[in-house]
């Protein structure tokens, strides 16, 4: 416990911190995760970054998929980078209770209607980028963002997508239409490196709300 408290105090002093408000980065990050962010203004594909929205000026967290000069497209729910399909291997479903989560008290989206408190399922796969970075993504159901035009990332920008593919507003949507668009590298605040701790309740300190297994958890 002493080591844990020391890390928390050190992260507050040296690293930036961010409280995850919603579920666009499930399964990697959950609503109510309190994360440590290593300040940085550069990122490589696979990095989970906190950045300032180009229009709204608010903090967002997503995964970098591509950098300047890369071409990105979604085809039938499959991610393509530079005309090559990103390898995706199905794994066990991601299952969570259909109940309010995190600071906003939002209920998760499921692949079928369920009753309150019942298991909420989403298909899950492990993706592997060309540079070897691995992470899991979720697929709830077919949607318009599963098929896109080809995006060519401008130099000095990155293309970001949420791991919860069907519940994320990201670079697939233009920034002047409520999306994120291409993110300037200077808008990047840092890379998410650790989940310091996690609470499923409306407050980080809500009694009984801390999630087991999410203390000092490395983010990949």
TrEMBL record:
It is a single-pass type II membrane protein. One of its GO terms (biological process) is signal peptide processing. The active site is at 24, 62. It comes from the Bacteria. One of its GO terms (cellular component) is membrane. Keywords: Hydrolase, Protease. The keyword Electron transport does not apply. Residues 5-196 form the Peptidase S26 domain. Belongs to the peptidase S26 family. This is Signal peptidase I. It comes from Psychromarinibacter sediminicola.
């Amino acid at each position: 416990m002493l080591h844990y408290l020391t890390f928390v105090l050190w992260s507050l002093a040296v690293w930036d911190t961010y409280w995850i408000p919603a579920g666009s980065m499930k399964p990697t990050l959950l609503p109510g995760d309190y994360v440590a962010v290593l300040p940085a203004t550069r990122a490589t594909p696979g990095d989970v970054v906190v950045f300032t929205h180009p229009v709204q000026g608010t903090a967002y967290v997503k995964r970098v998929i591509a950098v300047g000069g890369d071409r990105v497209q979604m085809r039938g729910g499959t991610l393509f980078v530079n005309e090559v399909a990103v390898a995706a291997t199905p794994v066990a479903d991601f299952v969570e209770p259909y109940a309010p989560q995190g600071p906003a008290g939002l209920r998760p989206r499921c692949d079928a209607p369920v009753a309150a408190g019942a298991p909420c399922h989403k298909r899950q796969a492990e993706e592997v980028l060309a540079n070897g970075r691995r992470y899991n993504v979720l697929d709830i159901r077919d949607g318009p963002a599963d098929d896109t035009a080809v995006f060519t990332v401008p130099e000095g920008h990155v293309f970001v997508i949420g791991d919860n593919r069907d519940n994320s507003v990201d670079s697939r949507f233009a920034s002047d239409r409520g999306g994120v668009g291409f993110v300037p590298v200077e808008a990047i605040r840092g890379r998410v490196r650790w989940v310091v701790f996690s609470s499923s309740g409306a407050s980080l300190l809500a009694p009984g709300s801390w999630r087991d297994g999410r203390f000092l958890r490395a983010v990949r």
